[in-house]
Amino acid sequence: MQCAQCHDHPFEPITQEDFYHFAAFFARTKVQPFLISKRVSETSSGEMHLGGVPTGQVIAPRFMDGTTPSAAGTRRQQLAAWITHPDHRNFSRAITNRVWARLFGRGLVDPVDDLNPRQTPNFLKVLDRLADEFIYSGYDLQYLIRTITRTRVYQLSSQPSRNNRGDERFFSKARLRRLNPEQLVGSVAMSTGLASSEQAWQNPIFRLLLQVVVQDFTFVFGNMDETTEVSEFRGTIAQALMMMNSKHMTNATRFHLLSPLTQKLQRCRSVNEKIELLFRTTLSRRPTTAELRTFGSYFRAAPQASQQLEVCEDLYWALLNCNEFHFNY
Amino acid sequence: MQPLLSRRGYLRLSLGATASLCVPRWLDPELHARESATAGRSLILLWMNGGPSHLDTWDPKPGHPHGGEFAAIDTNVAGIQISEHLPQLAKQMHHLAVVRSMTSKEGSHERGRYLLQSGYLPMPGTQHPALGSILSAERGQPDQAIPNFVSISLPSIGAGLLGMEHAAFHLPNSESPPPNTALPGHVRGQRFQRRLRMLSSLERGFINTRRGKEATAHQDVYQQSIRMMRAKELAAFDVSQEKPQVRDAYGRTPFGQGCLLARRLIENGVKCVQVSLNGWDTHARNFPLTRNRMEILDPAYATLVQELDERGLLDSTLVLCLGEFGRTPKINPLGGRDHWPKTWSATLAGAGIRGGQVVGKTSPDGTQVSARPVSVPDLFVTCCQALRIDADKQHLTPAGRPIRTVDATGTPVAELIP
Q1: Contact status, residue B116 vs residue B276, Cβ threshold 8 Å
Q2: In Å, how far is B248's CA from the nearest CA of chain A?
Q3: pTM, full prediction
Q4: In-domain check, residue B359
Q5: What is the helix (H) or strand (E) element at residue B132, kind and residue range?
Q6: Which of A216, A284, A323, A324 is the best substitution to test chain B (most B C-beta atoms within 10 A)?
Q7: Contacts of B217 in chain A (CB under 8 A)
Q8: Backbone angles phi, psi at B339, to 5 degrees
Q9: A245:B184 CB<8 A
């Protein structure tokens, strides 16, 4: 659709006029700052001009299927009614595909916005089946996510078998997905124990503080808008330096007496329990026997209590910086 | 079955194939010789944030009511005059080319910044890379211990479709070490060693569970980062290692020290350094504010050009100085000047640019280009020529749209590169 803002679409039957017919639904939309957020309203006048310039010819609202709005309501209400009409499958398909892409790192239709009839028919069958469920549930996103995550294909391992090593697109194994800045900051906050309760996430002050950190991270990690494919998002030196040495990470990896993680560590009765606690809070899994042996040796080389706390801090730092923590796999 | 290649994938592949089919670069002896001889070209962008008033700096109009308060002075090139508040630059004029006929249509700061750092107007669905990011991608050393593109004081616009690894490494302050390269105080040498050993075990463990190339790529980036923390080239970021007289010559301002740092970084293999001087947005009190900016710019820019020349680096380093746009020739009731993209000036030096000349001309009142208009793509194509990068190369957006390094409308300004 974006292509048609400046010229007719090069491959699809979408003309520049189509774009502005569609844009006309938003010609009367006003977005105004409201408290810390924004408020959207609609005025009673205002027209869309071809090319988006006032000298262009006035373009009336028209739906993508060529019909014109007849129902009552504001332009945006008319558009919303048309888009979500059960006969118009593309809305439920698009949402379903985007949710799928979020969970799998690649849509059933890929790129996610390329819903066209030439897509793999078998995948389209899956997409339509899920989209039907989504409509049936009353457009319940939680229901959709629950359904997808319960499928066998979602629960597949990212480890390849002998036969599917090269597969990037048939969902025969899970693909590694790098956490985005929000997910990364959220995961670090969760692992410290500060944010592990439902109440913490609902606390506006906590969320605001976290937002500050997220902004610092987003600046270094780059804004990933919806056109950024997860697979194209690679790590950079500035990001690694931020994870290793920034003040946020230094604060997070110091075990002050009051931090929930320190208190839990002090309740551990053995070295193995400490290692297990640190693994579970960061990687959500138990350490293997080999890992217990490897990391246990660091504790045995530093027997005093203060030294042991330092070893814990170092292991925690390493866990937060390792590849396994940075990927959803 | 889905066809093995999607339409966008096909486009991507076919463009790549076309590029590589027209004589592999290493088979073209002339191109190869030229490339290896000039592999070291680099760029320093002096970014005048806010948009400097061209009539008060490089394009004086003494005697005209639009000319304002400042006098014009002679330079060391006969017939070229610039503002009286750029006396040191007047003595470097033999190195400088002033384009007085720059013209664009973008009068907003944000869009103007995007235009003058990338060469393109903002376009939905596409993120154009900064010129420095292009240079980093085309000519940067991937295995260099320090970044190929550094932006001092303000951040650069980003690397867009080239990917984050070509984005400028941002250094907010020219006199502090690069962010996050120093270990926190409590992690002394031994402890950091222990952390790295632990990290290495964890990374290897995950890689051994056969998770694919991204798990290994993660380890590579960490190794590069640790190499940067330990690199002796990191000393290049420390301007305090320079003699006090040298630091004084650049001016003891963040911008002056930033220009000195730019010289040090270029000497150490950095391909592009952007140094920003903020505060040119003089809607009110234009004259005292602009004069103050020029007093900061003059010693820094002049000393930079002079030192690059003395050290034999000017032949391989393009120094480009510009902002988003010019400012209204007519002085407003607040004694200010507003945004004016229709006419403005850019200056270039080094990398084969013929210095000691003025290109183009504005009308006596400064409002119109009266000779030799130069568009932003014209300027960018010329810069690409000076930097020896291919302005016609096609890059693909995530949506599969081909984008040239510089917009196809650009034609080189022949006067600048003989």
Answers
A1: no
A2: 31
A3: 0.79
A4: yes
A5: helix B131-139
A6: A323
A7: 234-235
A8: -70, 140
A9: yes
* B13 is a domain residue: no
Q: Contact, B147 vs B169, CB < 8 A?
A: yes
Rounded CA separation B381/B216 (Å):
38
Contacts of A36 (CB under 8 A, 6+ apart): none
Residue of A nearest to B1 (CA): A120
Domain span at residue B135 reads 38-177+238-402
> Along the 329 residues of chain A, how does pLDDT read in single tens digits?
777 888 888 878 889 999 999 999 999 988 888 877 788 888 888 888 888 788 888 999 999 888 888 867 889 999 999 988 888 888 999 999 999 988 988 889 887 877 876 767 788 889 999 999 999 999 999 999 999 999 999 999 888 888 887 787 788 888 888 887 778 888 888 888 776 666 666 777 777 777 777 777 777 766 554 444 444 455 778 889 999 999 888 888 888 877 788 888 989 999 999 999 999 999 999 999 999 999 999 999 998 988 999 999 999 999 999 999 999 88
Dist CA A124 CA A11 (whole Å): 21
| Number of residues that make up chain B | 418
Q: Which residue of B has its CA nearest to A314?
A: B195
Q: Beta partners for B319?
A: B44, B349
Per-domain residue ranges for chain A? 2-69, 84-175, 181-328
CA distance B48 to B42: 19
Closest in B165, B181, B201 to A245, CB measured = B181
Domain count, chain B: 2
State which residue of chain B sits closest to A112, comparing Cα positions. Answer: B399
> Do residues B379 and B97 touch, judged by C-beta distance below 8 A?
no
Tell me if B72 is assigned to some domain: yes
DSSP-derived pairing of the beta strands B272-277 and B42-48: parallel
Instruction: Tell me the shortest Cα–Cα distance from A60 to chain B, in angstroms.
Output: 22
Nearest beta carbon to residue B221 from set A237, A317, A327: A237
Degrees to nearest 5, angle at CA B324 with B64 and B105: 80
- The answer as to whether B416 is a domain residue is no
Check CB contact under 8 Å for A238 and B194.
no
CB contact under 8 A, A291 and B205: yes
d(CA A296, nearest CA chain B) in Å: 11
CA angle A47, A49, A50 (to 5 degrees): 150
So what's the ipTM on this one?
Answer: 0.81
**Contact at CB, A232 and B163, closer than 8 angstroms:** yes
Q: Residues B301, B390: one domain?
A: yes
Buried-state track B191-203, b at ≥16 Cβ within 10 A, e below 16: bbebbbebbebbb
> Given B191, B211, B224, which is nearest A314 (Cβ)?
B191
Q: From the CA of B223, how many Å to the nearest CA of chain A?
A: 9
Helix, strand, coil distribution of chain B in percent, nearest 5: 40, 15, 45
Closest by Cβ to B124, choosing from A2, A158, A315: A2
